[in-house]
Amino acid sequence: MPKHLRIGRSNKCLHRQSDIKTLASNQPNLLNSLEPAFKRYNEEQYTTVKLPGSSEATIISQYNSLGDGRYFDTASQTSFAVDHATQQASDTQQHPLESQHADLIRSLLKSFSTASAEHFPSSSIGVYPISSDSAIALALVANKYSPKNMWNGRWRSTYTFTPSSSTLSGTVKADVHYYEDGNVRMSTSKKLELSVGSSGGSAEGVVREIAKAENKFQEELNRAFGTLAEGSFKSLRRQLPVTRQKIEWEKLGSYRVGVEVLIVFGVCVY
């Protein structure tokens, strides 16, 4: 699978396995050979699945991987198998949260879920013990698909919190694809080193610092877009002299092409 598959297009590509089998009829094991690529894509993009009997979306990532195609969800304390080609979950089993930071993880789940719901219209989060239970990973993915307007977007956040030192670091990634009459894609990321010392490493303090950092990043993106529109994009347009005279648009159709139009815009014609 291409590493930079268009956002929101993976399901359509993955679910057309019959077409792949037809096109590669002489390679019956092709789909099996693509499993590592499907797995890498799903884990990197924080693909979400719904567990059998549940309406909640659960993240697939390297942080909640158990190996052999199985993952766990700390919120429901459940493990499950994933078919990476179809992005379907199955075979759920109980998976109790066993961590010296279990109480903190539960608090982070609650605070992080509340904060993400306030800032994103549709998002999924996960909080997992990592690094031999010495640290905690927080993952968030928010997708927005608008095929009618021909654009899709994805926001991903990843943070590592170390309780013993109250250190918090992470990466935020934003990816937007606009594909009407062409392809325009914005892919950007920012690494963050945050301080949670004053909060004592509480769940509320950790999430508060994350929210502040992400709001600041969003503001930086907004300013960058403004500069892009007023600067870089504007400079691509052909510059015309300013005459400070109103154009009589209703008469434009009667002007002689190449002469009067130029005169209206203040260009000298000899």
UniProtKB/TrEMBL annotation:
GO BP annotations, alphabetical order: actin cytoskeleton organization; barbed-end actin filament capping
Single Gene Ontology MF annotation: actin filament binding
Keywords: Actin capping, Actin-binding
Entry-linked InterPro entries: CapZ_alpha (IPR002189), CapZ_alpha/beta (IPR037282), CapZ_alpha/beta_2 (IPR042276), CapZ_alpha_1 (IPR042489), F-actin_cap_asu_CS (IPR017865)
Gene3D superfamilies in alphabetical order: F-actin capping protein, alpha subunit (3.30.1140.60), F-actin capping protein, beta subunit (3.90.1150.210)
Alphabetized PROSITE patterns for the sequence: F_ACTIN_CAPPING_A_1 (PS00748), F_ACTIN_CAPPING_A_2 (PS00749)
Listed GO CC annotations: actin cortical patch; cellular bud tip; F-actin capping protein complex; incipient cellular bud site; mitotic actomyosin contractile ring
Function of the molecule: F-actin-capping proteins bind in a Ca(2+)-independent manner to the fast growing ends of actin filaments (barbed end) thereby blocking the exchange of subunits at these ends. Unlike other capping proteins (such as gelsolin and severin), these proteins do not sever actin filaments.
Family: Belongs to the F-actin-capping protein alpha subunit family.
Subunit structure: Heterodimer of an alpha and a beta subunit.
The protein's name in its UniProt record: F-actin-capping protein subunit alpha
Species in which this protein is naturally found: Zymoseptoria tritici (strain CBS 115943 / IPO323) (Speckled leaf blotch fungus)
